[in-house]
Amino acid sequence: MRMALAVLLNSLLILCVPTPLLAKGKTVTVTIKGAVLKTPIEISDPKILANFQVWTGPGTSTAGRQSLIIDWSQGPVRKPPASLSRYQVSFHTDPNDQIVYVVCYAFSPGSVPGYVYVPGEADEWHGLNVRSVARGVEVEGKWFRAWSAWERVARPLIEKAEVADSIQPR
Q: CA 146, CA 162: separation in Å to the nearest integer?
């Protein structure tokens, strides 16, 4: 009887744990959404995504490693100008291509650098993010410079999408 109860309780606990905590798969898709984008941009090339893994950086065992889309080495920076275009960047991981982490990316064409905001306690995506990786008060709710590897991938995709959307017949 005790064994059956223990098995039942363990099963219930496993079912109650949020899925992101159980699934620490590799990043399989990064989605970029923005008000100026007609449709979201999806990056799914495994060679590109190898650089942008959720489970690395602050709050993980690979804290010193470049990861996500942030240049962690520069530390937090001041809030960038409100005139920069802002984009929601979502990270989807295996096994179900589910969203496990979301940040805000801000930049303006011709303006260097871009910036990344990691949602803080008062922000919409904070709960999802900390269930995946709790990066701590040194990171959450702060702006950082975007990692140059991300800038080389994202900027051209966003700029190309914006141009294509702006020349479509209405």
A: 20
